[in-house]
Model the fold of this input.
Amino acid sequence: MAIASSVSLHHFSHFLISNSQQLKGFGHGCSARPRYYFSDNPNNGVRPIKATTQSAPYPLYQPAQVDDSSSEESYILYGILKFPCFDPFPKFSKLEPADPDFYKIGYVRSMRAYGIDFKEGPNGFGVYASKDVEPLRRPRVIMEIPLELMLTISHKIPWMFFPDIIPVGHPIFDIINSTDPETDWDLRLACLLLYAFDREDNFWQLYSDFLPGTDECTSLLLASEEELLELQDADLASTIREQQRRALEFWEKNWHNGVPLKIKRLAREHERFIWAVSIAQSRCINMQMRIGALVQDANMLIPYAGKVLSS
Done:
């Protein structure tokens, strides 16, 4: 009987480094095109993995190789096999392969997955090893995700985005700029996500079909008052109500009847905006980003990686 192994994203202390030497034309966003690789905290005892478009496809079952050569464009590599995570029972027979379009929309944009399958079951999407593997202590690459597919915004002013999809003068930037730099990272990322959904030919416009809807998302931010009353933790329920109120007030302030249509259509109902905030909160990955001599913390939404986190 085959033994199924689960694959999960292992969190290291990542540092995002760019080979770019110059900054130019920042305006309200980052127009430079940095090249990144990730190096792990030395205390973790794991060698850094560098990926480039010049390297051959990375086999899941071969030792990691570190390539110090430079390239025009690099990809973030994720993943480590976590063992033991075995289940000899055939419950995985209930899983169905993911919609082929889920692979296609990423593969045509150079996203790659190695040794894993995306499958859908009663609990939604998950990531599973495509075959049994021996327990390994060294990390293995399971995905390559182009930076251009991610949504990134810096923690602090001046707001920098990569890729910089917001045109100069667009009112969504004024909404982002009105947020509190210290506390409102999720509101900013939600605004950026909603804008990406609306942008013609943007990857996230397609990827949104594979995100959990308001009736599927498990975030307590979307819980009704009746559901919150069922919580046994009164402090947690109070915190969730405060978060719901905060998101609702932000939507009411910025999505009133007088706003331009290009803003109104992003979230015509407050439920849409609160859902976007819940996606940002549950799928954001925080990293440090260096562009030239400038280092900033950044919030990132990384497609496909969320499926690893939920496995």
User: Anything to note?
Assistant: The chain has two domains: 4-27+35-148+303-309, 149-285. Residues 4-27+35-148+303-309 form one domain. The longest strand covers residues 80-87.
